[in-house]
Amino acid sequence: MPFFWKPYKSDVTQFIEELKAKKPSLEAEQRAGRALLWDRPIDRQAQAEWREARVPQQPYVYQTQPEQRGD
Hints:
mainly alpha, 48% helix
């Protein structure tokens, strides 16, 4: 490997590294934003109730149900 060889960095990687260098608090802000929406405890009781109340969907939702004949 020659001495002048330099590992490749894409434009996107360079942009992200520059952005993080300019604003060191960026990653902490991202984690705080994620915690607002995603990192929450799961309510197992509510999840179980939701699963029990779920109604199965027919394959083609816009088709009307055929009438049952009692012949």
